């Protein structure tokens, strides 16, 4: 059952994605940034991946393109997961937003934006969600020092 | 606490009465603490435990929380305060009326705990003055009660001027 | 006072006053008892009815991911604990499971059953806390005291095995920190008897109480399609009527061998969320009773020197064990390069860990897929259209845990 869905996805998209690997029970697809929305729509409508679990990013500062944007999907009918990954460069870190397809994408995209600086085309609300107004920089990037604090209230003494 | 400003010094025959007044007011204030539980994180679990049976802060008169800073006199900062929450904490502290005391409950409120990074404030005493620190991650309820009793001793021994130069 | 600069506002609300006629904007939180101290809701009200709600979290963001990148795989277990601090053991075991799968380590049978037992025990503590807080916010102080008294028994009991009451740091990669002390299972049986009594009393107080039915029924209604669209999992999704539970759908640990049911609700309102949690606690207690009889004897941690510390008598006598111990503590267990996403059923829903390793003892990335974060993303749908006073039970029934939501 689980293998069936993964096989069908590879059969449909295997030729058009950059990479399709099975590891630890999960199918991982690497696609070009421009095709994210198409693949996600196909996963939702054709393959039954109705639950978007999470959107996050990984920073590889020595690599070009620098960022990996990682999506995880779950199917509540087949009980399998799929990982979708795309790679964006540091000078233009923008992907299409999935907020129109999955409302669950809104908050994780805001978090990705403030933590890594990744833009999401089509999501009009990219205000900071975990950080605050006035915070400069993207803390989860590898070049942001862990201890650099930006206090809002002046310290006593 | 020991040095008295000149304009507040009372003539010696009356000092017996002011000391007794301080003791009485201190006794009344220490047994009717109205905590403002500024609760954020895991220490909340121990705060809930210490407020209910079997550890019960009601025995100390400190059971009734007042969620308005205007009505409370003990600010218990329970849990991690980060830089986003710091203006909120400062505003709540400023809105409380004198006399007020502040307890830093837990390691994160005392010093930031083990969150030494861009997000967490390394101790609330950077932005508000603190009267009592209760360490622990989270502190056991017995430690909290010990802390409250220490604070009560301090309130009992303190001077309680009813009329000050500001009033 | 007036000569100091004004305090800055850490957020930017989505809407401003004056956009609609006759409405007012009210700020609820973040220092508010009903919002568990870490969520701010900017609500546009028409009289008492909420028209729009703009929810802001992040007031407990403590930089979990950034901290994890500078600690070894073992040393970051206390940080993982403090994610969902109401059921800290579930976080421990979910993280350890993810690292173990990446390393290719199989835990011992005793560890598997014991982790399942302790995870269910933690789940009971979490649901007790959630229901106690929600009922207290509605005014039922007695129910709060009953449930917290029971939770206190559980805390003391877990302190007997782990050493701490709330945040345990008990999971280890490859096993657990230590085994159960003598007499632990007998005390467990006594506590489960107390559970039956106390929870029975709370059922008697709340279930058919006119006030609670009026306040909780048909308030904060969520349909299944909406729930899945907004990323809801766990008791909130089950209260809408679908029996989606990772313990049944994709069994892990020892769940495949246990006999339990998945309670579902009818309408997806606050009353259903409360009742689903009460039934889940009953199922957890049933599972714990089964597991207490199923625990096999044997070692608690797998005998694999890649992750488990060697026994102390060997560390003090053999040079290889000494070096092994030293390397595990200073450098951390070496996890092969790769990535994994592994999810367990947390008390609030799907608790996932996405871990990226480049080899070495320090992780490259540890990301927690927090159910509470997804829930807060959609909570405005549960608030809009209802009264301001309904915000309190709705927020309480969704069980947003700040440590998990803001990480």
Give a description of the structure.
The complex is a heterotrimer of chains A (157), B (167) and C (407). By secondary structure, chain A is α/β, with parallel strands linked by helices. Chain A has a domain of 90 residues: 2-Layer Sandwich (Beta Polymerase, domain 2). Chain A has three helices and seven strands; from the N terminus they run αββαββββαβ. Chain A has a five-stranded mixed beta sheet. The mean pLDDT of chain A is 91. Chain B is an alpha/beta fold and 167 residues long. Chain B has one domain: Rossmann fold (3-Layer(aba) Sandwich). In chain B, helix 4 links the parallel strand 3 and strand 4. Chain B is globular. The two termini of chain B are 19 Å apart. The model of chain B has no long low-confidence stretch (mean pLDDT 87). Helix content of chain C is 46%, strand content 11%. Chain C is globular. The two termini of chain C are 35 Å apart. Chain C is mainly alpha-helical and 407 residues long. The model of chain C has no long low-confidence stretch (mean pLDDT 92). In chain C, the strands form three sheets. Chain C has a three-stranded antiparallel beta sheet. Chain C has a three-stranded antiparallel beta sheet with strand order 6-7-8. Chain C has a two-stranded antiparallel ribbon with strand order 4-5. The chains are: A alpha/beta (157), B alpha/beta (167), C mainly alpha (407). Chains A and C meet through strand 3, strand 4 and helix 3 of A and helix 1, strand 6, strand 7, strand 8 and helix 14 of C.
């Amino acid at each position: 059952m689980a293998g069936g869905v993964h096989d069908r996805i590879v059969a449909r998209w295997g030729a058009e994605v950059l990479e399709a690997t099975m590891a630890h029970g999960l199918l991982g697809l690497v696609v070009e940034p421009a095709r994210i929305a198409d693949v996600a729509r196909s996963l939702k409508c054709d393959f039954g991946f109705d639950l978007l679990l999470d959107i996050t990013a990984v920073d590889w500062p020595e690599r070009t393109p620098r960022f990996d944007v990682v999506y995880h999907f779950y199917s509540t009918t087949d009980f399998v997961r799929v990982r979708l990954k795309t790679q964006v460069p540091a000078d233009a870190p923008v992907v299409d937003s999935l907020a129109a397809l999955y409302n669950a994408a809104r908050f994780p995209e805001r978090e990705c934006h403030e933590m890594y600086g990744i833009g999401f085309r089509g999501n009009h609300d990219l205000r900071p969600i975990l950080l605050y107004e006035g915070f400069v920089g993207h803390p989860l990037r590898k070049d942001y020092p862990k201890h650099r604090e930006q206090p809002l209230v002046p310290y006593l003494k | 606490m020991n040095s008295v400003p000149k304009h507040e010094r009372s003539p010696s025959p009356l000092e017996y009465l002011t000391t007794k007044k301080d003791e009485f007011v201190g006794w009344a204030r220490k047994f009717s603490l109205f905590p403002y539980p500024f609760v954020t994180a895991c220490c909340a679990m121990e705060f809930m435990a210490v407020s209910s049976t079997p550890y019960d802060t009601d025995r100390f008169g400190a059971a009734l929380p007042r969620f308005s800073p205007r009505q409370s006199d003990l600010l218990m900062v329970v849990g991690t305060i980060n830089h986003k929450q710091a203006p909120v904490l400062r505003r709540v502290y400023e809105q409380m009326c004198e006399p007020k005391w502040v307890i830093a409950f837990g390691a994160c409120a005392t010093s930031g705990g083990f969150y030494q990074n861009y997000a967490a404030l390394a101790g609330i005493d950077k932005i508000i003055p603190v009267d009592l620190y209760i360490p622990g991650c989270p502190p056991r309820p017995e430690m909290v009660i010990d802390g409250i009793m220490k604070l009560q001793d301090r309130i009992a021994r303190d001077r309680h001027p009813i009329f000050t130069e500001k009033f | 006072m007036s000569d100091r600069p004004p305090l800055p506002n850490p957020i930017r609300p989505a809407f401003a006053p004056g956009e609609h006629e006759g409405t007012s904007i009210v700020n609820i939180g973040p220092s508010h008892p009903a919002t568990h101290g870490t969520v701010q809701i900017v609500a546009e009200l028409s009289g008492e009815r909420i028209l729009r709600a703009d929810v802001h979290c992040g007031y407990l963001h403590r930089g979990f991911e950034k901290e994890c990148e500078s600690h070894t795989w073992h040393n970051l277990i206390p940080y993982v604990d403090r994610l969902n601090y109401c059921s800290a053991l579930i976080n421990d075991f979910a993280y350890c499971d993810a690292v173990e799968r990446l390393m290719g380590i199989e835990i011992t049978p005793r560890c598997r059953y014991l982790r399942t037992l302790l995870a269910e025990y933690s789940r009971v503590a979490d649901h007790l806390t959630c229901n106690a807080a929600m009922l207290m916010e509605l005014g039922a102080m007695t129910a709060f005291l009953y449930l917290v008294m029971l939770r206190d028994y559980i805390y003391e009991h877990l302190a007997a095995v782990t050493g701490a009451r709330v945040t345990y740091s008990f999971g280890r990669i490859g096993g657990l920190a230590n085994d159960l002390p003598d007499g632990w299972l007998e005390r467990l049986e006594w506590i489960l008897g107390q559970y039956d009594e106390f929870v029975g009393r709370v059922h008697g107080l709340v279930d058919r109480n006119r006030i609670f039915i009026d306040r909780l029924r048909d308030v904060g209604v969520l349909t299944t399609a909406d729930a899945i669209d907004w990323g809801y999992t766990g008791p909130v999704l089950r209260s809408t009527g679908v029996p989606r539970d990772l313990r049944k759908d994709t069994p892990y640990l020892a769940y495949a061998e246990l006999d339990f049911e998945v309670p579902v609700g009818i309408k997806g309102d606050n009353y259903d969320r409360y009742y689903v949690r009460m039934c889940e606690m009953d199922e957890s207690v049933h599972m714990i009773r089964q597991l207490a009889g199923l625990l096999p004897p044997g070692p608690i941690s797998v005998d694999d020197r890649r992750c488990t510390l060697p026994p102390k008598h060997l560390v003090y006598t053999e040079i290889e064990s000494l070096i092994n111990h030293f390397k595990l503590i200073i450098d951390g267990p070496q996890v092969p390069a790769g990535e994994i996403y592994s999810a367990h059923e947390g008390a609030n829903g799907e608790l996932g860990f996405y871990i990226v390793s480049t080899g070495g003892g320090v992780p490259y990335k540890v990301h927690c897929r927090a159910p509470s974060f997804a829930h807060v993303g959609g909570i405005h749908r549960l608030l809009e259209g209802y009264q301001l006073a309904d915000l309190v039970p709705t927020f309480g029934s969704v069980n947003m845990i700040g440590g998990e939501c803001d990480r």
